[in-house]
Write a structure and sequence with these properties.
about 500 residues; 15 strands; 15-stranded parallel β-sheet; LRR_dom_sf; single chain; alpha/beta; F-box_dom; F-box domain-containing protein; F-box-like_dom_sf
């Protein structure tokens, strides 16, 4: 049945080879597969000729204009006749990836380097206008102002006449709004107003907070936030960490107090954001990257107030104050389910306090990743206490080499035995355990479904993998960073070896 086939093939939306094979089965399957393949064409590693397919569907006047321009730069090309109007299928538009593909196409056409910029921007503008007027309805838009040299008035006109292009937009990213000095502020403000008017049902909004920006543009960004009916995720990036516009944009989040479920901040002033989020009762996920944590009275005072029903807490690339993190974890308590702390600079006493706090206050952890903890007795006690743990990532400290090999083997055997019966995923790619996979698997009773390792180049480890697979009958995938064919034939029928990128589970 067509409805069933469409549902099945839609689940292959990121599997290029599978979809391409499906398109060759029959005319019926082709009609279903091709629109899915072309929803997000710049995500796939298509050949540059993808641009030729799009250019072939330009209007007659646009084709004549472009071909005359190409000939002026000694590029002679004929656009193929196509069966489908591929532009109509577009649902994801990333201007940065679009620019990359156009440049690849120009290189394929042996375009003189001196002509790259002129032709790149010309083709991008023609394609954007074509996407808008083709009847496409976007779901995701990644707007990078560094890609364009200017915004043409006809683009605004096309958008205003074809508002269905933005009507179902769910994810919007706005980047480098103050990057390009060639932009006319009025033009950028006009585009942002169109976005404000046409995109009121966003689920996710990512804003790169401009360091220095015209107040009119900052106001437009604030209006986009305020215009949303049910914004669930916000991602704010302050690249340099000192944007004077952060307070205005952060304050606008108050309009989304009831709907917001996830906040991710990068480089932002932590206190500035936490002040606004303090009483967001429905906030469940808080991710912090490259922000400054300070053990100061103001932050501690904020954390003392009624804060949060956080289930997921992630702190990465931060030299954090452990006392602040401990205070947060205590506040989250038994509601916390997913925890990732990836940082450096915490001493033995702080590690002990951190582990003790997690054990005492967070019994419902299902995902755990704490960098530089090692296999200490206290850490193993914590793991044995987490009876709902499903996902575990180990990242050994730099001083792990100080442990004798005999002690390390003992710790590994003990650790393997205490792994909870709920554990399905174990990442030891950056752990000393990776060198002793056979010890881990020979003593492990956890029903692992996924195992992430650095490499599989030892017969003893390969044998242990097969024996574990036979014994537990749960292990499906082994993600390997250095994937080679040494043991792939031996593994066949027991486990599937894949590249670690395809198997890693994030927080």
């Amino acid at each position: 049945m067509p409805e069933l086939m469409e549902n099945i093939l839609n689940n292959l939306d990121k599997e290029f080879n599978s979809l391409y094979s499906c398109a060759l089965v029959s005319r019926h399957w082709c009609k279903i597969s091709i629109p899915i393949l072309w929803q997000d064409p710049f995500y796939f590693d298509y050949k540059p000729l993808i641009i030729s397919e799009y250019l072939s569907s330009l209007g007659k006047d646009e084709k004549i204009y472009l071909q005359s321009m190409l000939k002026a730069f000694e590029i002679n090309t004929q656009f193929p006749q196509t069966i489908f109007d591929y532009a109509n299928f577009l649902k994801v538009l990333d201007l940065y990836l679009l620019k990359s593909k156009v440049q690849d196409w120009l290189r394929f056409q042996r375009c003189p380097k001196a002509s790259y910029n002129i032709l790149t921007f010309t083709i991008i503008k023609l394609l954007i206008k074509k996407f808008i007027e083709s009847g496409a309805i976007l779901q995701e838009l990644y707007l990078d102002f560094s890609v364009l040299d200017e915004i043409q008035p006809e683009i605004f006109c096309s958008l205003e006449q074809n508002m269905q292009f933005l009507s179902r937009l769910q994810d919007l990213s706005i980047k480098s709004i103050s990057f390009n000095s060639n932009f006319n502020i009025e033009s950028v403000a006009t585009l942002l107003k169109i976005l404000e008017k046409g995109t009121t049902k966003l689920n996710t909004l990512k804003i790169e907070v401009p360091v220095f920006c015209d107040p009119q543009l900052v106001h437009s960004l604030v209006c986009i936030i305020n215009s949303q009916e049910q914004l669930k995720q916000i991602y704010m990036v302050d690249t340099y960490g000192f944007s004077e516009n952060l307070p205005s944009i952060t304050s606008a989040l108050k309009s989304q107090k009831q709907s917001l479920r996830e906040v991710r901040i990068e480089g932002c002033n932590f206190i500035e954001v936490i002040k606004v989020l303090m009483n967001f009762e429905n906030l469940e996920t808080f991710r912090v990257r490259n922000c400054e944590f300070s053990n100061n009275r103001e932050l501690l005072k904020i954390l003392e107030k009624n804060f949060y029903k956080i289930k997921t807490f992630e702190v990465t690339d931060v030299e954090f104050d452990t006392l602040i993190i401990v205070r947060c974890i205590k506040k989250f308590g038994s509601l916390l389910q997913r925890l990732k702390l990836e940082s450096i600079g915490i001493d033995f006493v702080e590690k002990s306090l951190l582990l003790k706090t997690i054990k005492s206050f967070c019994p419902n952890i299902t995902y755990l990743y704490i960098r530089d903890i090692g296999l200490s007795a206290q850490f193993q006690e914590l793991i044995g206490n987490l009876q709902k743990l499903q996902f575990l990532t180990l990242y050994d400290p730099a001083d792990v080499d100080e442990i004798t090999e005999e002690e390390l083997r003992r710790q590994m055997m003990q650790f393997a035995r205490i792994l909870p019966s709920t554990l399905q995923y174990l990442d030891i790619m950056r752990s000393q355990l990776n060198s002793y996979i056979y010890i881990l698997l020979n003593h492990c009773n956890a029903p692992l479904k996924k195992l992430i390792i650095s490499q599989l180049n030892d017969e003893k480890n390969a044998k242990a993998l097969i024996e574990f697979s036979i014994r537990k009958r749960t292990l499906s995938y082994v993600g390997v960073r250095d994937l080679n064919n040494t043991f792939q034939k031996e593994m066949k029928g027991y486990v599937t070896l894949v590249s670690f990128e395809d198997a890693v589970v994030g927080c």
